[in-house]
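The data are passed on as follows:
___
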Amino acid sequence: MRIEKMMAELVQHQNASQAVQMEKYMRNQFAFLGIQSKKRRALSRAFLNNEKKNKGINWNLVYFMWNQPYREYSYIACDYLLMKKSLLVPDDLQHLKKLITSHSWWDTVDNLDKAVGELTLAYPELNSVMLKWSQSDNLWLKRVAINHQRGRKTEMDTVLLRDIILNNLDSDEFFINKAIGWILRDYSKTNPEWVLTFLEQHKKQLHPLSIKEGSRYLS
């Protein structure tokens, strides 16, 4: 399926009343067609399956979708990148950074961090970039730096995790403190002792939200 046909099908299935609700949920920052995730994935499946056959990552295609007026196309761009994440190479980090810092909100950023995580796991020399991002003036780059190791389990780089969190202990930003709690909670399922020790060592500096979220699975 060509992208034009996929886009036409999405438009045919737009739902005005649902769009209002979706836009409200995202604080009216973006326009929506009103197509929820399950239906969007069904409508875009043939297009993505066709793209899966193509070698490499078509960044022109990604940017084209990213710059469409309706948010659903950004979600499809994320689905495309996650489908192709094993093909990412270090030079692609600049493209991911552009996406993270444009039309930014948690809905796309928290999908892009999965792609960043796959890339940095394959190319650990990019860890230094994650440290730089953790000190960025851009909220969303910080959030990705904090959360890009989600799901790594025994492959978690705990030195990197520690240093990135320590770079953000003074934050009063909700999305940062939530992210710290989120990554600690995630890792606590694999290494509760490490998380418990970290929380204890830094309890005076950590935001209460981070402690609450990070200790959720700890007995």
Residues 106-122 form the longest helix (17 residues).
